[in-house]
Amino acid sequence: MFTLTPALQSPHLCRVRTLTSFITLTPDSHQWPDIITTAGQQLDTLRQQLTTLGYTVQTLRLVTNPFGQYLDTSTEASTLRALAHIQSILESPTMPQTVRIRFALGAATPDTLHLVPALIQHFGDYANVCLNVPDTGHAVPDSALTQRAAQIIQTLSQSTPRGEGNFNFTVNYNCPEFIPYFPASYHLGSESHSLVLGLESTDLLYQTLQCLPPTQSTSAHYQLAARALTTSLQHHVDQLIPTVQSFCHAHGLTFRGLDSSAAPSPDCHSIVDLYQSLGVPHFGAAGSLTVSALLTRVFKSLQRVPLVGFSGLMLAALEDRGLARDAAAGHYDIRTFLANSAVCGIGIDTVPIPADTPLDRLTAIMLDTGTLAFRLRKPLTVRLFPAAGLSAGQLTQFQSPDLCNCGVLAVE
After folding, report:
1. Per-residue pLDDT tens for 243-261?
2. What residues have CB less than 8 Å from 78, skipping those under 6 apart?
3. How would you write 170-199 as a 3-class SS string?
4. What is the pLDDT of residue 190?
5. Of 200, 322, 380, 391, which has the fewest CB atoms closer than 10 Å, so is most exposed?
């Protein structure tokens, strides 16, 4: 039996990682200030309402239609000037000042992909970008476009400090619109503004597992764990969603739903803590795949809310202290992420690799991820960090507060 205790009902255990608004911009830059400012202020108003419920909202995020639809991309200089205008709007006094604002340029296209390194180099977290690589048939990703994306990854590793610009670029395979998490987030130009909610719930899930009574078998323990985790998470979703739905209705926004994934962070419990609580000594050990499938089942079993985006297990090596530690200890390799992606998500996310990884090897691991995504009909992404001057097994030296340092993984 499992009883949801008052402690597990505390909003402090389940933070709102993001309120993400999807806006549509046109080439008429005179309209941008009103559209961006209105969206930012609306998100901040909703943040304040959720705060009164006791929940912490960590970031407000704005996602546009593909940037080639509204920026002047005729030259690199014109593109940078246009984005500088958007930056000035985002940093104006009319935007919320008490919470982090993040901005995504939506999807790059084959025609605008070459501009991505300069955009990220100059604007960083105001230039989150994804590339959607299509299936060319028989679950085979576009290999030429994948190779071009691999070249962008290599360029960012050289053109941004310590290669940290790769935090703002991801390659999407079979990913839908309206993912709230960056940089996989995009939409194609919806007529109405949309809103999606994303959570950071690892602390809640960990504390739930600590409350489980002993059971006589692993199977029984797993069944009880799945029910308990779902119960805890559903409680907080039920607290949050009515307020979000009511707000969207009042402001003419389309509520697309919730991405139920437990977003990783260096500042909360590691996902590895959940594996260990379920009897797996470290990520990559025997039983890891089973636990990954169990957690994914929990994220996909929520009721009374549309599930969007990944709504699955996120394994991000550079954003999770436990995964970073296990990588440094040599407990898993890059193929472990691929194996687990078959039963969960998110693909190969924030994984450091040697800077001298040949382009064909980098492309090959990306194609493997894309093939898995299309064959299994699930969203997967690739976000790799070629680490300058480092070889497999060495520890990265990133300085971004969004990242924790991790052992470099080989690409064979």
Report:
1. 999 999 999 999 999 999 9
2. 71, 72
3. EEEECCCCCCCCCCCCCCCCCCCCEEEEEE
4. 73
5. 391
Q: Mention every residue, 6+ apart, whose C-beta is less than 8 A from residue 297.
A: 226
Residue 303: other Cβ atoms inside 10 A: 9
> Is-contact 404 320, C-beta < 8 A?
yes
CA pair distance 174, 133, nearest whole angstrom: 8
Asked if residues 179 and 141 have their Cβ atoms less than 8 Å apart, the reply is no
Render the burial of 283-296: b for 16+ CB within 10 Å, e for the rest: bbeeebbbbbebbb
Q: What phi-psi label fits residue 137: left (phi over 0), alpha (psi between -120 and 50 degrees) or beta?
A: left
d(CA 261, CA 300): 9
Token digits for 76?
Answer: 């690199």
Low-confidence ranges of the chain (pLDDT < 70): none
Residue 5 backbone phi and psi in degrees, to 5: -75, 160
C-alpha span between 166 and 154 (Å, rounded): 9
Q: What share of the chain is helix, strand, coil (3-state, %, to 5)?
A: 45, 20, 35
Pairing state between β 169-173 and 194-200: unpaired
Task: List all residues 6 or more positions away from 107 whose beta carbon is below 8 Å from its beta carbon.
Answer: 66, 129, 130, 131, 132, 172, 186, 188
Question: CA distances (Å), 405 to each of 182, 330, 334, 382, 400, in order?
Answer: 20, 14, 16, 18, 10
For residue 183, say if its preceding peptide bond is cis, omega within 30 degrees of 0. yes
Rounded CA-CA distance 266/321 in Å is 6
- Interatomic CA distance for residues 370 and 134, integer angstroms: 9
Which has the closest alpha carbon to 347: 133, 64, 112? 133
Predicted local confidence at residue 218, as pLDDT: 86
Residue at 78: amino acid letter: S
CA distance 228 to 323: 24
pLDDT tens string 138-158: 889 999 999 999 999 999 999
Count of Cβ atoms closer than 10 Å to residue 340 Cβ: 23
3-class DSSP assignment, residue 308: coil
d(CA 208, CA 229): 6
Residue 16 in 3-state DSSP? strand
Tell me what pLDDT residue 224 has.
Answer: 94
pLDDT of 214: 83
